[in-house]
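Q: Hand in one record:
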Amino acid sequence: MRRALVGMVLVATVLTGGCGSSDTAEETCAKARATLKYYTSEAPELKALNAEIEKAYQGNGTPDDAKAARLAYNRAFGDALRSIADRADDPGLKASVTAAADAYSAGGQDLEAMQTALDQCPQKP
């Protein structure tokens, strides 16, 4: 349970660090940042994960329920990242977002890939 909570904190830390035609680096980064913000603040999968962690801490849930919620959260986040990566026209950004999407879609995390993607985003003045 604690590891799941630590993972969520790490994802939130990374956040503070970006159907047709392809997206420019600016568009890709904007979508990646918006997706990261959504999945670390208001996604239903995040709310379900937090609820399962809370239940486990209170002794009302099981570790398996929390693990299942974490897996669902990671996979949903990975799927969202994949749709962004698929439209990216910048090869480096596409590779970084794809690496993060692959890890999350498999049920894991790759905070380094996510940070690498955000580091490649054009800086705002």
Observations:
- Residues 5-19 have pLDDT under 50 and may be disordered.
- The longest helix spans residues 63-87.
- DSSP finds six helices and no strands in the chain.
- The two ends are 40 Å apart (CA to CA).
